[in-house]
Write a structure and sequence with these properties.
560 residues, alpha/beta, Rossmann fold, 5-stranded parallel sheet, 3-stranded antiparallel sheet, 25 helices, 40% helix, 9% strand, globular, disordered N terminus, transmembrane helix, membrane, transmembrane, EC 2.8.2.-
Length: 560
């Protein structure tokens, strides 16, 4: 093969090479032209034929005047062109896929609701973090449709499906079949000389046995190990010896702060534990009734080994030691007085979180859980007292979002998540009962924000099927924030606590608020007015029913 040194054009054997301006000037002489004669050039042999080395290195395309100029492009430039076309194609495909997913295409698809997965066999093979796949929002994601009337149609559909139906309470024998070990550990009766539910349990270990060696709370959490290290040191000092046997005092809480999250339960907990007659579990929120007894540490991590009831009872050993000291005192033994120290537990998930039921109980009730947390608590403690702290569900949801969202938090992002959650909730209530949707693990994990936690009346009515109304104290965070002294007096009276000195009362009521909103979250400002209007419409029928149940219009939250 022969090439022109200046333009790298492949020459045929008889080609006079007249198309190259550099080789053919006005006075061009092929015999005298050193370029055409090939002087001082280094031949390169490729494919067994000579090829000019500089022709490979130097490519000139600016003087090509025929179709042969197309071949002046080097192979590298052709590759660059092809690479650019591929990148452009990938960008266009990515746009089309993303647009279809988020409803950004010019011709959106119609709404399509995901199927409601109530079949436990489908969910048993999936991790909890993958449950969102069962609920897919429409291809035209309503999150991006910020048109209030459009979302209002979804809310109207949900409202039309609301029915408050009383659940059927399971009998005691059914509960025993579900949790036989728990019933074998907790007795039917407690010590008569103690206000708090306690009993003596025989301890069969010896002096070298670690009573907390297998406690799951100590094994899975480093921050609790210090507490259990202390309990190990003092354990033998608090055993009761009777007829050559050792007994340990076991206790359950006298009262539970059962909800709701982001409603001031931490502040109430911090103030109550300052009362001289109140003790709490070693951990503020054990979440045993709702999660740990099912083996749930974090919902996104799936299931671990189930925490036995003994691990839960260990959390009250610090308080049990103090109660035992009172029981062994002369005042109780000789004068017939009783212990007035009471224990509390403050897991804010107790009121509403029944998500694990589908994995452990028979699903024969059309998606509704056959057993709830309150059924078991009432079976062991029919006289337990329950405290509920609530706030405007609209503000609660925004606070919940700011606290738990990890990145890209904004009022706009919150709006989109609310709209998507409403769409998912609508898809559920179209086919299932309100209770089935509220307690459905799949739906609750799929919704970007926890709308269901603000449906207070649904949970309260279910608690009232097993507990009497006078055993439940319902407070509002708004009242607690404006008149803390009044709400704390309500709590003291409800728990039948003794009077306090002025100094003790001032310490409890004048302490700074706990667990307030973080500065970086406050800087994001309030939610969008449109979002607030949407949520007001959604929660209105539930708040109306709640006010009727409690005979208090303050729970309508009209002024907030």
């Amino acid at each position: 093969m022969r090439y022109c040194i200046n333009c790298c054009i492949h020459l045929l054997p008889n080609d006079l090479h007249r198309q190259c301006f550099r080789c053919r000037g006005p006075d061009h002489n092929n015999q005298k032209c050193p370029v055409c004669r090939g002087e001082n050039k280094i031949p390169l042999y490729t494919d067994r034929k000579q090829m000019k080395w500089l022709a490979v290195l130097e490519v000139r395309t600016d003087h090509c005047e025929s179709w042969n100029g197309f071949f002046c492009l080097r192979k590298g430039k052709l590759c660059s062109l092809m690479f650019g076309l591929i990148i452009m194609t990938l960008v266009m495909v990515s746009y089309m896929l993303t647009g279809a997913k988020h409803g950004l295409l010019l011709i959106p698809s119609p709404f399509h609701y995901g199927a409601f997965a109530s079949n436990p066999s489908l969910m048993d093979n999936e991790s909890l973090s993958d449950m969102k796949d069962y609920y897919q929002p429409s291809k035209m994601n309503i999150s991006y449709v910020k048109d209030y009337p459009s979302i209002k149609l979804i809310i109207d559909t949900i409202t039309s499906k609301i029915e408050f139906i009383t659940r059927q309470r399971p009998d005691l024998e059914e509960l025993r079949k579900q949790e036989p070990h728990m019933f074998s550990v907790i007795p039917n009766k407690f010590l008569p000389n103690s206000k708090n539910p306690c009993w003596y349990e025989e301890y069969r270990g010896n002096a070298t046995t670690d009573p907390y060696a297998t406690n799951s709370y100590a094994l899975y959490s480093k921050r609790f190990r210090i507490i259990f290290d202390y309990l190990r040191k003092v354990f033998w000092n608090h055993l009761y010896h009777y007829k050559d046997k050792h007994y340990r005092l076991r206790c359950l809480p006298h009262f539970y702060i059962i909800g709701q999250p982001k409603c001031g339960t931490t502040d109430l907990y911090d103030r109550l534990r300052l009362h001289p007659d109140v003790r709490f579990s070693a951990i503020k929120e054990p979440h045993w009734w709702t999660r740990k007894r099912f083996g749930i540490i974090r919902l996104r991590d799936g299931f671990h080994d189930r925490y036995p009831v003994e691990d839960y009872l260990d959390l009250f050993d610090l308080a049990a030691h103090q109660i035992q000291s009172v029981l062994q005192s002369d005042a109780v033994k000789e004068r017939g007085k009783r212990n007035n120290i009471i224990i509390g537990e403050a897991s804010a998930s107790t009121m509403w979180d029944n998500n694990a039921w589908i994995f452990f109980y028979d699903n024969s009730t059309e998606g509704e859980p056959p057993f709830l947390i309150q059924d078991f608590i009432h079976a062991f403690q029919p006289n337990a007292k329950l405290i509920i702290m609530l706030r405007d569900p609209v503000e609660r949801l925004y606070s919940d979002y700011l606290y738990f969202a990890s990145a890209n938090k904004s009022a706009e992002d919150f709006h989109e998540k609310v709209a998507e959650s409403l769409q998912l909730f609508e898809g559920c209530v179209l086919d299932f009962s309100l209770r089935a949707c509220v307690y459905n693990n799949t739906l609750n994990n799929a919704m970007p924000v926890r709308l269901q936690v603000g449906l207070y009346v649904v949970y309260l009515l279910d608690w009232l099927t097993v507990f009497n109304k006078d055993q439940i104290l319902v407070l509002r965070l708004e009242d607690h924030a404006s008149n803390m002294r009044y709400t704390m007096h309500m709590v003291f009276q409800f728990l039948d606590l003794g009077p306090l000195s002025e100094k003790q009362e001032a310490l409890i009521t004048k302490s700074p608020a706990s667990n307030t909103r973080r500065p970086e979250d406050r800087s994001l400002g309030p939610m969008l007015p449109t979002t607030k209007a949407i949520l007001r419409d959604f929660y209105r029928p539930f708040n109306t029913k709640l006010a009727q149940v409690l005979f208090d219009d303050a729970f309508l939250w009209k002024r907030t």
